[in-house]
Amino acid sequence: MDAYLETERLRLRRFTGDDLELLAALDSDPEVMRFLTGQPTSRDEVGSVVLPRILEGYAAHPQLGTFKAEAPEGFIGWFGLQPTAEPRTVDVGYRLNRAAWGKGYATEGTRALIAKAFTELGMERVVADTMAVNHRSRDVMRRSGLRFEKLWHEHFDDPLPGTEFGEVLYALDRATWEADAHE
């Protein structure tokens, strides 16, 4: 299957129905899910909700989606570019297995997706959000060129630990990205 994007160490491609076990293993790690749902996602839910939603996304938005990430050591997780309510704005995201943490993959993949969004996809803005207490992810956002934009608080009926510190939004517009690329 054709790659959606390739970097020096990463190859991103669309998921298929054959990737259920890889996604289920990723989402079953409580540390990977800590700032997302706070608990592992069951294999049944990955098979009946998560993977079908990913596959349906390709049809709805052919240039965007959630993409399987492979490094020299094999499957490491996923990266995604998702549509937002704002025109010509995409949300960048990533979920990597613990074995891939601390190796620069998250920053490498995110930078490549930002470049693709601005150069190939004609986007004007890239955004990313996380819990304010998710410092590792915030570091990736900063290293990728995204800039802190705002902090906000949401009400959750069953909040995760750290929710009281809020959510953060990081963003980058095309003009800033182009200016930074020429410094």
Explain this structure.
- It contains five helices and eight strands.
- The protein has a single domain, classed as 3-Layer(aba) Sandwich (Aminopeptidase), CATH 3.40.630.
- The longest helix has 18 residues, at 43-60.
- 32% of the residues lie in helices and 28% in strands.
- An eight-stranded mixed β-sheet has the order 1-2-3-4-5-6-8-7, sandwiched between helices.
- The mean pLDDT is 93.
- It is α+β, with helices and mostly antiparallel strands.
- The protein is globular, with a radius of gyration of 16 Å.
- Residues 10-175 form the N-acetyltransferase domain.
- This is GNAT family N-acetyltransferase.
- It comes from Kribbella sp. HUAS MG21.
Which keywords apply here?
alpha+beta, Aminopeptidase, globular
Question: How is the secondary structure organized here?
Answer:
Elements: E1 5-6, E2 11-14, H1 20-27, H2 43-60, E3 65-71, E4 74-83, E5 89-96, H3 105-119, E6 125-131, H4 135-143, E7 147-152, E8 167-173, H5 174-181
Parallel strand pairs: 5-6
Antiparallel strand pairs: 1-2, 2-3, 3-4, 4-5, 6-8, 7-8
CATH class: Alpha Beta
How many strands in all?
8
Order of helices and strands: EEHHEEEHEHEEH
Distance from first to last alpha carbon: 37 Å
Q: The biggest beta sheet, please?
A: 8 strands, mixed
Shape: globular
What proportion strand? 25-35%
Q: Helicity level, as a percent range?
A: 25-40%
Q: Indicate the mean pLDDT.
A: 93
Query: Any low-confidence stretches, pLDDT <50, length ≥5?
Result: none
The oligomeric state is: single chain
CATH level-two architecture: 3-Layer(aba) Sandwich
CATH H level: which superfamily? Gcn5-related N-acetyltransferase (GNAT)
* Domains, number: 1
Taking all Cα atoms into account, the compactness measure Rg is 16 Å
Arrangement of strands in the largest sheet: 1-2-3-4-5-6-8-7
Overall structural class, as computed from helix and strand content, comes to alpha+beta
CATH topology: Aminopeptidase
Helix count, DSSP H or I runs of 4 or more residues: 5
Protein name: GNAT family N-acetyltransferase
Organism: Kribbella sp. HUAS MG21
Domain N-acetyltransferase: 10-175
InterPro entries: Acyl_CoA_acyltransferase (IPR016181), GNAT_dom (IPR000182), N-acetyltransferase (IPR051531)
